[in-house]
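Hi L.,

You mentioned the student needs an example of a multi-chain input paired with its predicted structure. This one should do, with 410 residues in total across all chains.
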Amino acid sequence: MTWQDDAGRDLVKSFGARMQMFVRGEGSYLWDADGKRYLDFLAGIAVDSLGHAHPVFVDAISTQAATLSHVSNYFATPPQLALAATLKRLAGTGDGGRVYFGNSGAEANEAAFKLARLHGGTERPRILALTDAFHGRTMGTLALTGKPYMQEPFLPMTPGVEFIDSTVEALEAAIDDRVAALFVEPVKGEAGVLPLPEGYLAAAREITERHGALLIIDEIQTGAGRTGEWFAFQHEGITPDAITVAKGIGGGFPIGALITFGAASELFYPGTHGSTFGGNALGTAVAGAVLGEIERADLVGNAAERGAQLSQAIEAIDSDLITGCRGSGLLIGVGLRHPVAKALVAAAQEHGLVINAPNDETIRLVPALTIGDVEIDEFIELFTASLRTVEDALVLDAPTQLSTSTEVPA
Ligand SMILES: *Cc1c(COP(=O)(O)O)cnc(C)c1O
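Structure written out for the whole complex:
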C-alpha cells in the first residue's frame, strides 16, 4: 500500500488527488518521505508566515500547551487579551475596536456576514460583494463568493447577496440606502492574484459611508504583512468598518478573527455569535508570538522589499511563457501566455519546487515572509528549469501553436 492508496481510500473526495506527501519542514524547505527536498513558495497557501518549524512558533506552542490550552469563552486568558490588543493596534482601530476570534478564514467571514445582517436589520437587506472574489466555502461564505460554478451544486444560497464588478462605476450604480455592507477582497488571490483598481478602496470607503453601508475587507490572504503593509487596506490609508484575518496570522496554527472599527464594534450583543474553540489560549498565544516575530524582524518591510526583488527577477527570466507579474509584496501572480499553469506546477515539483496555480494561466507565489537572497536565487534557478521543461513539452506537442495561438492542446 502506498500513501496514494491510503489517501485515495480514506480522505474526502472534495479535493483532487494529493500531489505529494510531506513529512518535515524547516524554514522555506519541505521534505518528502524519500528525503527529497523542496523549496516551498506556497507556504501552506500564505499561512506559514515564518516558514516551517520556526523556533518562535515552536516555543510558543510548546510553552502555552504546557501552561493552559483551552478554557472556553466563559473565561478570558492572558494570550487572548494580548492578541486582541495587538490586532487592534496593528489594524489601527483605536480604543473603539473589538476582536472576535474563530478558527479559520470562513469563520471570520461568517462572523462578518452576521455583523452585516445586524447592521442591516430589515431596512437594509442587500449585501454587495465582488464578482470572482473568494470568501470561503461554508454556506454563508459561499453565498458571498462570486463564483457561480462553486455555488451551483449547493443552491439555494442564503439570500440578499448581489455581485458587482470591481469598478467604482459598478459600485456607484449598485449601491443605495438598502445596502447593509460591501465585501471586498483587496487582491483576489484565488481568482488569479488580481489587485483592485488603484483608488478603489478609497472610493468604496467614501461611497459606502455616504449610503450608511459597512465596508468589510477580507484580509485573510493579504493580512499579516504579506503585501508589504500589515493589512492591504493600509496602502490606501482608509479606515474600514471591519476586516477579517486568518491564514498568515497563525503561522500554521488554525485561527481567524473579525476585527471591527468604531460603531460596527457595538453591533454584536450577548448571544448573537460564538465559538467553542475560537480565541483559545493555545491559538492566541501562537498567533501573538507569530505577529510579534513579524514585527520584531520587520518581515512586513521584508515582504515589500523581497516581493519587488522577486517580481523583478521573474520578469528578467528569458522565457516566452511569462507575460509578467502582478500582485503586492509577497502575494505574486505570474501570468502565463498559455494555459499551462498546472503542467508548470507538476514540472516544478519534479525540480523540487512547490508553487500553486489558482487558474490555468497564473502561478501564485506566496512564500514565507522570511525569505532572502538565498531562497530567491534558488527559486529563480528552479523556476527557470521548470519553465524549460514545459516549453520543451509545448514545442514537442505543438510546434506551430506556440507562437500563433493562446490555446495549447491538452
Ligand atoms: C483562504 C481564504 C478564505 C477562506 O479561509 P479558510 O481558512 O479556508 O476558511 C477566505 N477569504 C480569502 C480571501 C481567502 O484567501
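You could point out the following to them. The chain is about 35% helix and 20% strand. The first helix runs from residue 3 to 10.

Best wishes,
N.
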